[in-house]
Backbone:
């Protein structure tokens, strides 16, 4: 189909039009173009920050609101998509052992070789996640260009010391979450794989039960290292209300030893900033060892 023969619906008025160029989204009526450009401008993170700063200055001058209220902070303005991209894997010949989480060390080595990016201190270049497929695994890669280069192609690799061919799915771009409402809200967080958080940054000393401080620390680290956001410590508000969890240990073997964490469900109260970051953690993972499939969580409004 040529571009000139394709029809689309205008994203503003809904009228059908013939496409003149691939990025065309409106019928090119002046009013539709104006409204489209205005919506894009208002979605720009820099514009949102400037509006918030202007509103803060006005409130300080006219309402005597000089003290900040972190529980009323809005979600951080961000681009339309999270950085990086996702890929699901298919392996042939299929391994003689199922790639369960206890065997994830071999999968981690395979994906590390495929991605081919240097390790960064305390910032994995990819996160493994269970996937609904025969092979059962996918990865979120923080480098978009590398993920795009791997996508929709087959690559030679090694799994369980056996030569295999890894076919990567088409690229999946995770959209940044949208959290419009400010203020307090209750969330349910279900840990599908163990959530691992270090105590005081000590290797091997891990939380085996959730606490609000560990969740805040994990979200702050993810914001800074994985999303490029510098947030004030007070910006992330989390209170633990209830939990139905248990300690879980998984022996990875070799130099990785045994990794400890917690699984189950917790109920928290948080602000919009924490809510937004927790929705991001559904893609990136919550806590540490996400490159080994730990920290896979499901987040819902309680």
Residues:
């Amino acid at each position: 189909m040529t571009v000139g023969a394709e029809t689309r619906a205008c994203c503003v008025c809904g009228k059908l039009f013939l496409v003149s160029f691939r990025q065309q989204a409106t019928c090119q009526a002046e009013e539709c173009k104006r409204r489209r450009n205005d919506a894009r401008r208002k979605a720009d993170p820099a514009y949102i920050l400037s509006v918030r700063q202007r509103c803060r200055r006005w409130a300080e001058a006219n309402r005597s609101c000089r003290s900040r209220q972190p529980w009323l902070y809005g979600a951080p303005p961000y681009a339309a998509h999270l950085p990086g991209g996702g890929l699901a894997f298919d392996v042939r010949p299929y391994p003689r052992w199922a790639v369960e989480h206890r065997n994830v060390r071999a999968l981690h080595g395979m994906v590390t070789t495929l991605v081919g990016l240097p390790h960064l201190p305390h910032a994995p270049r990819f996160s493994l996640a269970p996937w609904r497929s025969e092979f059962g695994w996918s990865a979120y890669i923080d480098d978009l260009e590398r993920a795009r280069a791997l996508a929709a192609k087959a690559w030679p690799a090694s799994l369980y010391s056996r030569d295999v061919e890894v076919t990567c799915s088409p690229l999946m771009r995770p959209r940044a979450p949208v959290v419009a409402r400010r203020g307090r809200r209750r969330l349910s967080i279900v840990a599908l794989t163990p959530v691992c958080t270090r105590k005081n940054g000590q290797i091997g000393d891990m939380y085996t039960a959730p606490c609000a401080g560990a969740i805040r620390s994990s979200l702050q680290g993810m914001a800074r290292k994985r999303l490029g956001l510098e947030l004030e410590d007070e910006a992330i508000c989390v209170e633990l209300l209830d939990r139905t969890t248990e300690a879980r240990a998984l022996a990875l073997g070799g130099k990785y030893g045994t990794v400890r964490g917690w699984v189950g469900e917790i109920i928290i109260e948080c602000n919009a900033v924490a809510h937004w970051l927790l929705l991001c953690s559904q893609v990136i993972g919550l806590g540490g060892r996400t490159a080994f499939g730990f920290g896979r969580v499901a987040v819902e409004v309680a």
